[in-house]
Amino acid sequence: MASGGTLLFIFTALCVTAVKSGFVKVECKAENVGQYGQQSLLECVVKTSTAIKDPTIRMVAWKKLTSPEDEGDPVLDFKRGKLDRPKRGYRFAEPSWNGKNMNVSLLITNTAVADDGDYKCIVITDSGDGSIVTTLKVQAKYSISTLYSIPEKIVPNTDSTLVCESRGGYPQGTIRWFDEEKHDWTASSKMEAKQSDDGLFQLTSRLSLLGGSTFSKYTCAVFNASGGKEDEKTFEMPPPPPSSQGGIGLVGPPVTPEKCLLRQLCQFHRKHQEQFSNKVEIYKIVVPLVVIGSLIICGLLIYGWRSREDLINFHLSPRPVKADGYTSPSLVRPEVSSCLKGVFRSHCRQSPCS
């Protein structure tokens, strides 16, 4: 009998609690957007059934959740008719809020990246209670701080790099590149994203340009995480030298990104063709010089050989020597001449003495 009475009491208490909970409902916007450095509002109101007259709120608790299962970190707490000291930067949206005010919206006075996430609002009234989870998405607008080239002074028809930097945005965005005809060159760039201590992102993108680019302007544009463009800057390339404005390669329509690979292959082929042409020009100069030098050396050798022959004939000849109209006997005796000629075999093979 006692057990039956206990069960009846528990059942009655549960029914009363369920009925009271049905009388009170907390309604919030499922998702709220807050701007970095500005005020953010999480709108929530308490709704009661028409059967409840003049309800009074006994407790309100706002908690920042790190996960759906987490109990949360209290940022604003009202209970027993008293507002506990709230966490810095959090307060009720209604400045003179009290237990009779059904607007329990939370105001964040100076929104930071750390405020991004889920919040739970718990309300207990004298007629029932309710709770709900709402989300705050923090956004910070990107702006392009710098746009410059490497090298600083671009020499026409040489390779270069454009660098675009954007700071102070959240969540992580992207940088895209366009030419003056709106062709997208982002695929030819590399982007790096760094997150600072305050949670904001710094984006740096580098676009590599080949020498002889046919576009005079390149635009760097930064987009937020939702794909919306927030800022852009344009870089103007230096004009080509007058001698090359009408040259080959600058005639016809500009090269589109889809044809970029073909242009690179053409430039590679042209570069090696120029190197081959330079080598041919060098050969045309060097070969004649080698031939002429060889002929000069051969002539000098022949001249030296004939001079040596004449000298040997003069000194080894046994014939009389004529000088100043007088004939004198040979200074070389015949037997000595024959002996010396034996030493100079090459001469003897061509001399009558042999």
Describe the structure.
Keywords: Cell membrane, Disulfide bond, Glycoprotein, Immunoglobulin domain, Membrane, Receptor, Signal, Transmembrane, Transmembrane helix. It is a single-pass type I membrane protein. Pfam families: C2-set_3 (PF22705), V-set (PF07686). Residues 1-21 form the signal peptide. This protein has four helices and 20 strands. Helix content is 26%, strand content 35%. It is α+β, with helices and mostly antiparallel strands and 354 residues long. Strand 10 and strand 11 (128-139) form a beta hairpin. The protein has helices at 2-23, 260-316, 334-343, 345-348, and strands spanning 24-28, 31-35, 40-42, 44-48, 57-65, 73-79, 82-83, 90-92, 106-108, 117-125, 128-139, 143-150, 160-169, 174-179, 189-195, 201-209, 217-223, 229-236, 321-323, 326-328.
How is this structure best summarized?
It is found in: Cell membrane. It is a single-pass type I membrane protein. The chain is α+β, with helices and mostly antiparallel strands and 354 residues long.
Summed up, the helix count is: 4
Strand adjacency order, main sheet: 2-11-10-5-6-7
Please give the radius of gyration in angstroms: 50 Å
Helix content: 25-40%
Mean pLDDT: 78
DSSP, total strands: 20
Major sheet: 6 strands, mixed
> What would CATH call the homologous superfamily of the domain at 22-139?
Immunoglobulins
Indicate the structural class: alpha+beta
Identify the CATH class of the domain at 22-139: Mainly Beta
- State the low-pLDDT regions, or none: 1-21, 244-254, 343-354
Percent of sequence in beta strands: 35-45%
* Reported CATH architecture of the domain at 22-139: Sandwich
Q: Shape from CA axes?
A: rod-shaped
Give helix and strand order, one letter per element, not per position.
Answer: HEEEEEEEEEEEEEEEEEEHEEHH
CATH topology of the domain at 22-139, by name, is Immunoglobulin-like
Ends apart, CA distance between termini: 161 Å
